[in-house]
Design brief:
208 residues, mainly beta, 6-stranded antiparallel beta sheet, globular
């Protein structure tokens, strides 16, 4: 196995947008073993940040991630925009300290959480839908299983916003993810069932 520190990664389809960390001690490490490749986040202070990404034209997001959650002791952010504030979204593992779950959260004035129980250590493919428009539904599927769905209660219909994405922790420098990130897709548009299935299979192959 090999491991190197990662200072930045490119965000595909967003030319010039790179998730980066200027402080060397807070960089995740890139590791390889048995033909697999991942970023390892230490659950202490590792964090990658993108420049501001404009999602203000969409009320619906799809997220896909291949992860290995090492511990459920402390809540950890896989990816998020604007923490738990207005018009935000996040994918967490776990959402609360000591609770064995994954969660997809979003909302306008009130954050709603779709959660799936899954105890660490565990390797999983996560597929999430965030909607803060008229239907206001959040859903989360783990390893292709039936999704947990939460509807309503996010406040008035709205769109997401213009802001940085935090990978491996919240943009507010908290909620550090403890584990491996094999791949991540953030799509600011509705994804068809066929495309979602393909993205899930793609992540499954990356996690081994």
């Amino acid at each position: 196995a090999t491991a190197v520190s990662i200072a930045s990664i490119s965000v595909r389809e967003l030319p010039g947008a790179h998730a980066a960390q200027t402080i060397s001690a807070r960089r995740p490490t890139s590791q390889t073993a048995d033909g697999l490749h991942w970023l390892s986040f230490d659950g202490i202070d590792d964090l990658l940040l993108t420049p501001s990404v404009n999602l203000s034209a969409t009320a619906r997001l799809n997220l896909f991630a291949g992860v290995r959650k090492v511990s459920d002791v402390a809540r950890g952010g896989i990816v998020n925009q604007n923490a738990d504030a207005t018009r935000s979204f996040s994918l967490t593992a776990p959402r609360e300290n000591g609770v064995p779950n994954f969660a997809a959260s979003a909302g306008n004035t009130l954050i709603r959480h779709a959660t799936v129980t899954s105890a660490a250590p565990v390797t999983a493919v996560l597929a999430a839908t965030h909607d803060i428009g008229a239907s206001a539904a959040q859903s989360l599927s783990v390893n292709g299983g039936a999704p947990a769905v939460v509807t309503g209660g996010t406040g008035a219909a709205s769109t997401f916003q213009y802001g940085a994405l935090g990978i491996g922790g919240f943009v507010t420098a908290e909620r550090w993810f403890n584990g491996r990130l094999f791949g991540l897709i953030v799509r600011g548009a509705e994804t068809s069932a066929f495309a979602s299935s393909n993205a899930t299979r793609f992540m499954a192959a990356k996690t081994g």
